[in-house]
Amino acid sequence: MDKASLIGVLIGSICLGIVFFEVSHGHFMMFFSLEGVLMVGGGSISVTFMALPMHAMKQVPGYIKKFMFQKGKSAVEVVQTMSMLGEKARRDGILALEPEIEKLQGTDPFLASGLRMAVDGVDPDGIESTLRMEIMAMTERHKAGKKFFDLIKLYGPGYGLVGTLVGQVGMFGNLATADIGTLGHMLAVAVVATLYGAIVANAIAGPIGDKLGIRSSEEILNREMALQAVLSIQAGDNPRVTLDRMLAFIPAVQRKTLKVAA
Amino acid sequence: MDKASLIGVLIGSICLGIVFFEVSHGHFMMFFSLEGVLMVGGGSISVTFMALPMHAMKQVPGYIKKFMFQKGKSAVEVVQTMSMLGEKARRDGILALEPEIEKLQGTDPFLASGLRMAVDGVDPDGIESTLRMEIMAMTERHKAGKKFFDLIKLYGPGYGLVGTLVGQVGMFGNLATADIGTLGHMLAVAVVATLYGAIVANAIAGPIGDKLGIRSSEEILNREMALQAVLSIQAGDNPRVTLDRMLAFIPAVQRKTLKVAA
Amino acid sequence: MDKASLIGVLIGSICLGIVFFEVSHGHFMMFFSLEGVLMVGGGSISVTFMALPMHAMKQVPGYIKKFMFQKGKSAVEVVQTMSMLGEKARRDGILALEPEIEKLQGTDPFLASGLRMAVDGVDPDGIESTLRMEIMAMTERHKAGKKFFDLIKLYGPGYGLVGTLVGQVGMFGNLATADIGTLGHMLAVAVVATLYGAIVANAIAGPIGDKLGIRSSEEILNREMALQAVLSIQAGDNPRVTLDRMLAFIPAVQRKTLKVAA
Amino acid sequence: MDKASLIGVLIGSICLGIVFFEVSHGHFMMFFSLEGVLMVGGGSISVTFMALPMHAMKQVPGYIKKFMFQKGKSAVEVVQTMSMLGEKARRDGILALEPEIEKLQGTDPFLASGLRMAVDGVDPDGIESTLRMEIMAMTERHKAGKKFFDLIKLYGPGYGLVGTLVGQVGMFGNLATADIGTLGHMLAVAVVATLYGAIVANAIAGPIGDKLGIRSSEEILNREMALQAVLSIQAGDNPRVTLDRMLAFIPAVQRKTLKVAA
Amino acid sequence: MDKASLIGVLIGSICLGIVFFEVSHGHFMMFFSLEGVLMVGGGSISVTFMALPMHAMKQVPGYIKKFMFQKGKSAVEVVQTMSMLGEKARRDGILALEPEIEKLQGTDPFLASGLRMAVDGVDPDGIESTLRMEIMAMTERHKAGKKFFDLIKLYGPGYGLVGTLVGQVGMFGNLATADIGTLGHMLAVAVVATLYGAIVANAIAGPIGDKLGIRSSEEILNREMALQAVLSIQAGDNPRVTLDRMLAFIPAVQRKTLKVAA
């Protein structure tokens, strides 16, 4: 569970709810517009289908799950796991990692495959290039996930503008015949489409895409740290050297706790 | 056939159709404006001719076809083809790939030329540099294709604004003499130009350009994978190593299926 | 003569002409505003002088000429020239290129200097670094040329906005005393400045800058190909190898024609 | 204490205060809008929680402190410290730096760890890679800090627009029934949300983020200089050479003072 | 004296002057607004203090001087100086450059330090890395200078918008009680703040920042040329080779003149 996401969604919903209530005095229907829903909702769906390949569209539920529920370990956990493995390899020889690899297979296949290669005696260049390729490929996949929300953030307001312009054309065409109340209502309905676009972009798709981007960077950092540690363990480095190579990747405050622990 | 593109186009068309109908009560002509068509349509054509060289303009029909109909293989197919070739080379020697190269000549000239060099004993550096150059050149050509739609996305709304401003100047010039109905009609016609620009950018050229960009990235990834596999096959690597080098490039879920198959 | 540029300019001019006529019924003077000309025209000139060094300003007529009249060879021509030179060097020795270099001195000084170094026996690293430097320097110069139009595209509408705001301030100051016709006329004049800015950016400077940018990329590609070929010729490579190194840079369709020809 | 930040905040506050007073004649409440506060304030908080991981949110007070109170040394101080250390190492041997390292442990752990490695005889490549990794990791952390303010700069005005649109929809819906004073008041309240967004983005979050970015660049530069000096000291270079390697990183004016001092 | 900057400033001032006169019929005070001055002027100062460190703020007068008065040599001058030095070193030995270095110390310390190292027999790698570091550090400093104007270009219009919104809130609050003339005047005053922002961004800070950026690129190019020449002189290359290495960096037209001269 990603508490920050949950808190953010709650705060945003409550603020929007109060403002809608304040302005409409409870007549929420004044903020409903079929045109707006069709343009911003339908338009966003249309655009993502047009812009993304089918296999990316099928992964969308996964992206949303990823936003709400934290996955992967924190940098500190990675350091602790790797320190433990380093100690063990130093004490009992690198082959002693075999049972650990079995356990990691399910929870961290990236690390497991790196250690497997280290134990099998693959040369360091080979390990580094294979793992780094995997990191690059993961980066590519994350980019595709982020793209979905970036597309909605970009085109949602665009479609909202289309809805508003259509409504305005309709209103201007009736300028001579309609009374002021009707014109006002038409204008309100037209503006709602832009409103939907602004909410979708600023309150939903924008921050979700940003969080996915930051998560991706963190995961890349964690894997980079694991890669450094695997190489260090295989080289038979002193566990302190292994620790130092990873420590460089995490913030100073957390580092102190770890150094004491090491 | 690219189903996602088709679905996207259908959803977008239906949503726009309903909204146009709802607002105009079937009088679709209120959304027609000769000025809008000339500015956004003619302007977009003018801009692409001005900005692109003639040979790029001639490839436009091809770009649109590429958007609607999927081309190239999926990453999984590439892995399967390469695994099969790797097995064969390992079993019967690299020369056994000769007949395969003949077959690939028509469907995948990039791979065929890579294998041809591997069989002819060109040194790995030579193969890598030639194939990587070809990938770079393909990237350049894809960029040119995407540029066409990016230009329309960028300048279409700009020309739409020109149309609206021209219409507004005309309207303001008649502010004293014309009645409110005429002014409203003039304003509606003026706004239609901006509407056309917003539709062209957000519902058409934008997402098409995005899809071409994503397709390009996928094709580059596929070729990168094929390049790695060709080098691995020539080096006489164990097919499992070859597979591992490619597997790093595809998502985890699909990977499992392949590992079982391998 | 660059036909695409000419076609683009003609289409744009005709569309704008029809729209201006339609709206003004031939009273084109309603689209003239001294303020607009001074702001968008004078402002653009002011900005380019302020932003660019004097020697860049002196090259502006050359940039515009470059936009209208195609310069340089197509990629296919480069391949044909280089293939011919490669064949000759292979058959008669590299010294046989001496007379060709004389001929190329006027039409393609870049290639001539590369071949001159190859014939003089300069080492490949030296040739590559000198030619690559020249390519980089050319890139720098092209960027400066493109910058002129990018500046107008960026600041033209900005100055147009200034003109419109000045006009609006004047109009609002007279809101109490002037009649509706006068106010409408003042507003029309004010809006014309924004209109000029939108036309300058979207119909003129924008696409010209884009074409200069694409031309620049093409010229860099051509020179990169020539560089590869010179190195290949000097190394005494088989002309087919030379051809392959260059072919990677041009689109598949044109490639077939060439392979047949080779 | 960062005087420039303080001066900037004071000037901005005074200017805004005078303008608010001038326009409202002291009735500051006309610039208060609950909708605006909820949208821009609540919305910004919501967005940062949604976009950033929890551990980044916890560091926000630290970011704000960093903006108001200067941390780290100036480039000149770094040069002076390193020159002093270089002289000492040259005169008394590199082991003489041991007591200095103890002192630096608290004030500059980066430099201390670099010198520790140099004294321990770690090979130059090892020192460079470890320190450079630490610089990269610091860069990552700084980016996360800057991101917080960039998010507010980006989404604050977006939420402000949402608030204004909601208010406008409410106003247009009452166009027929409300009197002009009420409509004016509703419009004023609506516009205030956009005003809050513009202030948050332009007067607060924008410049704070920019300063954090510049501070980050400076700190990277300082560390890069220290890294060069550590390598130079370990190599037993003449202190003048050490100085020259660092001097290249600081502006010419300050350099003169230092050269005289050296 | 940078003539282009002077011409640009004059043209811009004259055009703005005429337009202001035309619209106000000489009543320039209608374009004065205390709110506008406080917001755009005070706001820009506030933002630069908040975003930049104090030492950067102190260099602002220097930046403005740099914009109006050309500094540094043209590329052609650099080539001529370096050719002369190359000839001399070739004829009389590299030690003959000693007196030249003395002379250059004041006018071109970068070149002087490069030649000094060449004469002292520092190895080419050492010279290249030291000089290249100095070029990188200069690039960093130039970026900081450009940043000042980029900040004003970015936040000036933002603060202008704040001023206009504040004015509009004031006006809408008085919609029921004030007469049309007063409202018009209030609106005019409000719009003036946006006008100031547009002028500051488009006519002043924008182009100054652009010129500083281009000047920076030119200076980097000149130093890169000087670096190449120093290395070539030290290697005892034929002056023609030295010339060729530099010539690659300057435009073809100027090159011809030089080749004749050489």
Concise overview:
Five copies of one chain form a homopentamer. Helices cover 83% and strands 0% of the residues of chain A.
Would you write up a description of this structure?
- 5 copies of one chain form a homopentamer.
- The first copy, chain A, has 262 residues and is an all-alpha fold.
- The first copy, chain A, contains 11 helices and no strands.
- Chain A has helices at residues 3-24, 34-51, 54-58, 60-68, 75-92, 98-107, 109-119, 124-173, 180-234, 239-247, 252-261.
- In chain A, helix 2 packs antiparallel against helix 8 (124-173), helix 5 packs antiparallel against helix 10 (239-247) and helix 8 packs antiparallel against helix 9.
- The two termini of chain A are 29 Å apart.
- At the D-E interface, helix 1 and helix 9 of D face helix 2, helix 3 and helix 8 of E.
Helix content of chain A: over 70%
Number of distinct beta strands of chain A: 0
Largest interface: A-D, 58 and 50 residues
Name the assembly state: homopentamer
Spans of chain A of 5+ residues with little confidence (pLDDT < 50)? none
The number of helical runs of chain A is: 11
- Average pLDDT for all residues of chain A: 86
Structural class of chain A: mainly alpha
